[in-house]
Amino acid sequence: MSDVLITENIIGEAMDELRERFDCVFEPLLWKEPDKLRAMIPGFRALIARNQTQITREIIEAGTRLKVIARAGVGMDNVDLEAASQAGIVVSWTPEQNTNSVAELTIGLMLSLARMIPDADAHTKAGGWDRWKYMGVELSGKTLGIVGLGRIGSLTAAKARALGMEIVAYDPYVDPESLRAMEIRARMTSLDEVLTVSDFVSLHTPENDETRGMIGAEQFALMKPTAYFLNAARGGVVQEAALLEVLQQNRIAGAALDVRQQEPAVPSEFDKLTNVILLPHIGAQTHEAQRRVVTTVCRDVAAILNGGEAKYFANFNKPRRSRS
Ligand code: MLT
Asked: Are 10 and 32 in contact (CB under 8 A)?
């Protein structure tokens, strides 16, 4: 019997300390083997994962000694939260630790699209010097449409305002008069209007039953032919086939995707397009964000294993299961 099972590459000083204090098993590729995970999980009191481990009801029910599932990140789409709550297992997470990194990446992607930076770089390295091919657009004075005005959406909006952009936003859970909307002077409106009026549309919603597939052919048809689409949230929110079609037909100016419906992404027609920037889900991949994320999950796992409370919990904060 051990204490902590780590199923993805979660490393750093805080993890080293956790491994000194508790009996930890580090299996960074275990997320690829759900059957092996199901077989191993009964032996552990804690599970630490990122977004690639599918923490299903089956896994949770097999984890008969589990007291805490720690999600080193913010998206909860890979964790069956309801099953964890029913089983009395605390789910800890890091709701704000990577916010700034994702917001900065989104700004970087907007600039990359506006100035065609990745393509211009490839062109120059291939010996080219065609300055007229790379006539871009400025961000200043343009409208950024934010879909999902949570932590990441609102910080992205604040940074975009500093670059001179106007903000329109759709979020059915944010009151138009809320401080969050007022601070960034976002005009809250419908999803259709956000898509229709924006020069850049950026997704910042979680993936859940309400948002899965919410941006499809009908929504892309509303966007301006000069507009750009960005997704650094979750691939499943977008119908990729519909996005591929509008990009292939140049019905929008371009797109940047940090996340995909299937991750790791498989080779696809997107790879052949020059009007799309593709990244391997690196929104939270900065030294600063990872230090904060790993420190937070390790501290909360240690607290729960010692019978205490998690600081960041997605369900209840005290361990419910009696100690075995
Ligand atoms: C998150 O949900 O925090 C990010 O997508 C990054 C991750 O899960 O590793």
From this structure: no
Express each pLDDT in 10-68 by its tens digit: 999 999 999 999 999 999 999 999 999 999 999 999 999 999 999 999 999 999 999 99
Please choose from 208, 281, 291 the residue to mutate so as to test ligand 1's pocket, defined by most ligand atoms within 8 A of CB: 281
Write down all domains in the chain, each with its CATH number in brackets.
4-97+287-305 (3.40.50.720), 99-278 (3.40.50.720)
Residue nearest ligand 1's atom 3 by CA: 73
pLDDT at 317: 86
60-81 burial code (b ≥16 CB/10 A, e <16): beebebbbbbbbbbbbbbbbbb
Q: Give me ligand 1 centre to Cα 97, in Å.
A: 10
Compute φ and ψ for 152, nearest 5 degrees. -70, -45
Strand order in the sheet with 90-92: 24-26, 4-6, 46-49, 68-71, 90-92
Pocket residues: Cβ below 6 A from ligand 1: 50-51, 73-75, 98, 283-284
Nearest atom in ligand 1 to the alpha carbon of residue 259 is 5
222-235 mean pLDDT: 98
